Every structure is written in structure tokens, then in C-alpha cells.
Amino acid sequence: MLKCALTYFLTNAEFVAAVSNAGGLGIIGPHSGQETLPDSRFVALERMRQEIRKTKNLTDKPFGATLINGPDMSFWRPTAEMFVEEGIEVVLINVLLDKEIFEFFQTHNIKTIYRALTPTIENSREAERLGADIIIATGFDEGGTVPTSVIGTFSIVPMIADSVGIPVLATGGIGDVRGVRASIALGAEGVSIGSLFLTSNENPANEKVKQLIVNSTAEDLMLFRTLPAYYRTLPTDLSPKLAELEAQDTDRETMFDAMNGYKTLWQGMRLGNFNKGIVSTGTGISMIKSIRPVADIVEELMQDFA
Known about the structure:
Blueprint: E1 2-4, H1 13-21, E2 26-28, H2 41-58, E3 63-69, H3 76-85, E4 90-95, H4 99-107, E5 111-115, H5 121-130, E6 134-138, H6 153-161, E7 168-171, H7 177-185, E8 190-193, H8 195-198, H9 207-214, E9 222-225, E10 230-233, H10 239-247, H11 252-258, H12 263-270, H13 294-301
Parallel strand pairs: 1-8, 2-3, 3-4, 4-5, 5-6, 6-7, 7-8
Antiparallel strand pairs: 9-10
Helix pairs in contact: 1-2
């Protein structure tokens, strides 16, 4: 199984449909396809509904949607009910485990993929007990919000795969078919890919970001402390400030404020504003050599398995 791991504003209907049409499982993020940040959760929810409908007009293949259930659990049900209304067949559940959420999706015959911020044997087994259909084993190699445990993808995958009886997907630092082969050899039954798909023609990431990724390797990435754990960034105009704060052993809260919170990803990766934003990727970017159509990426990744 191949799925795209991008969430938030780095997906849209065209991109998600392209992944599913190529044989993967496209996943719609909460702010998929948006040109501006929403001013309320309800606006974000309705925008997501419209993007789901656009996607259904572009593919007859299955695709999924993301449920971000963080510390404030109050809004999960309206989102889940919208997924049911729109006929979503697969939901990616990020971060926290909650019995009621899994029971809701089971009642509506919706498959669930569980992805912990930091996968552990304990939370993987708990997700299986609650009814998750698939678990994503996220290694420290990933981009975006990096796990709190410094365990690489090819160490975390066999640990989690040996601990549960349901399928496990590997994610973090997988940039070409070699990573897929290694993941399968280590016990995964598929992969979840993020950074590589950022450089696809169909992805809504800014073109400056795509070219920066193609021109960079993992050696260019800077790791810094922030909330909830760590982030990486390729060089941007904001990077020297973050590097200076990191060298001063600045606390995570101050670092988070300095990077303008999560809006830094919107500024850097969606708008290409390197003065205010960062470009966070996984360590697998060393293998990314060009901007290509989604179909070409999927074909290359799945050449041994399709």
C-alpha cells in the first residue's frame, strides 16, 4: 500500500485524485486546496467538504481524509460526521487515541489509519485494541512535526510491526524505491510518503519550495527544538535566526514563537515566503532529483510491487 502523508494545506483535490488515480491512496488534509487560512473551525470544515466533493469529481478511486484530534477534542465529531455525509471510506487519525472516535468510524464502516506523533509499542497496541485497521510507524527521519523519540524509520518499523497483528506502514525519509524495498523487508506492508510528493507537478506547494528540495540534500537540513519536539528546515531567510536561538539553547516555547508557530509552514511551503517561513522536509530529499508528475513517482516507487 502506498499513501501520501501530506496534511493541512499541502494537498488539494487535483493532487489527491492524482495519487489515487495512479494507484496510491490520496489523503485530503484539513486545509486542503485553500488559498487563505480559515478564521474559524467551521469555515475550515466547510472548505474541506468542498475539496472532498471536488476530489470525487476527479477520481472514482478510494481516497481518505485526515482527522486531527489534538488536545482539544471538542470538534472531532462534526468533522467525523461530515466524513460520513460525504462518503469518505478511509480516515487518517493523527495524534491522540480515543475509544469513542474509533467506535464511531467502526459503526459507519470506515477504515482507520492511526498515526501517533511518536509511535511506541504501547500506543500501537492500544490503537489495535481500539480497532485501528492500519498503523503508521513514523521514524525520526520524517519532515514536519518530528517524533519526540530519536528512533529512525528503519528501527521503528520492525519494532512496531513485531508488536501488532495489523498492517504497518513505514514513513520518514523514504525518497525512492530503495526505501520501499527496505520498509517491506523490515515488516511493513506499505509506505506513507510526504516530502517526495511535495515535488510533484500536481502538489500545491510553492514552486520555489519544489526547486529548493530538488537542489538540496539531507546535509542541508537544520534541526531545531520547538513545540512539541523538533522541526527541520532547509535554508530560508528565517533559518539564521532559528540557528542562532538554537545555539543559545533557547527553550521550545520561545523557538515556537520565533518561527511564528505553525503559520511558518503556511508562509514558507505554501506561499514561498522564506522571510517568514520554513521548508520542513524529511531526510529522504537526497534522492529527489526532479519535479515529476504524481503518476511517475508512484510508478517508480511501486515498480517491484504493482
